[in-house]
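Thread title: Can someone regenerate the structure for this chain?

I was given the following input by a collaborator and told the matching structure tokens would be attached. They weren't. Posting the sequence so someone can regenerate them.
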Amino acid sequence: MARHLPPLNPLRAFEVAARHASFTRAADELCVTPSAVSHQVKTLEEHLGVVLFTREAKTLSLTAAGRAYLPAVRQAFGVLSDATRQLRAQLTPTLRVDIPPTFAAKWLIPRMDRFVKAHPEIDLRVSTVSDAPNFSRDEFDIAIRFGSGAYPGLHVEPCLSVQVFPVCSPRLMEGDHPLRHPADLKHHTLLHDGSVYQDGSNPHWSAWLRHAGVDDIDASRGLSFSPSHLVINAAIDGLGVALTKDRWVELDLAAGRLVRPFDISLPVAYAYYMVFPPDRAEDVRVATFIDWIRAEAATPPQ
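Best answer:
Regenerated them for you:
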């Protein structure tokens, strides 16, 4: 007996448009034009013989029929996505991890050889999208993000806590204006981390200077770099003094490439979190990676 299934592409356009309540935002996710999304939805409506959306000048809302249809459509795409992911997991040992660029450059990569040696059966594929994680759109299995830990619908586990402090090349501890006290920063270039976080959580020099009791330095002056590991490289090269997260400079401090001119740290309320869909907790690759991250986070730098 023939199954009366709707065409897949229009069905996908309907699900994405309903999720965003916008043909324009749906088009961005699907990498097509808004008119193409509208046409696909119209095709689905004609196939079903019902109107799924109420279209007004600046709003798009589901009709009663659309609201009734949407849960089953979402469930169907979820089942397809899970089945595809499970099949890929059986066919390939690749674990796709999406993390911020500096997390990769300054924390993960220096430790990755230990993961490779401990788990040669898993191939890591690292990407650095670094926006809000979207597991229904992006091709990765687990993400690490910096922020408050508010990721609705996802499993969230703390990864690394953070504090920030100034660092510089050892050369700046000598010379005409050696760094002895926070007030001495007036004689040096401030290096800024220009990375932008949607929740405004990136620490900045003005906050640290207030914390250190310094009020006569213009915290807006200096050089700015993004992503964060570039400001660390600039400090290593002696361009000035960088305000950086402690986790990113552990190895540079241990190797003597950087020094802490002052023993003053600014606590940060935000942290790094591992996030992934709850059903992936049973994926042995994901579980293995999480266990390894936990162990590495608890191990002093080597």
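The mean pLDDT is 88.
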